Amino acid sequence: MSSDANDPLHASTQQFTGLAMRANRVLMETAESALGLQLGQLQHSASATGQFLDALSKGQDPAQLVPQGLQLAQDNLQRLGQTGHNLMDLGLRSGQQLAELARTGLGATPPSSGKPG
Questions:
Q1: Which residue ranges does the record assign to the Phasin domain (predicted)?
Q2: Is 75 within 8 Å of 48 (Cβ atoms)?
Q3: Following CA atoms 93, 94, 98, 101 in sequence, which dihedral angle do they give, to the nearest 10 degrees?
């Protein structure tokens, strides 16, 4: 009799473990993508800044360097803003995936359209 009582518990435990593993995979993929986005932005900004500093160290005309420096700052800020936007989008998509996992994994039915069945 005890094995009969354990079967539903065992099945529920396996279902919960599978759900937790899928959720963990979604979170790890999100973290990996977020890190890739941030490192890509940092690499691009650092490269552009390095080129500007190289030009500055070679003693180029300051009249040319000021507009270049301002453009560099603007480009870096735009990249930073775009990366932030992409990170927010990534977080929203990850949240939607986790909500879908929770909905289907816990056996909940999707929200109804409001029409009686």
A1: 11-103
A2: yes
A3: 70
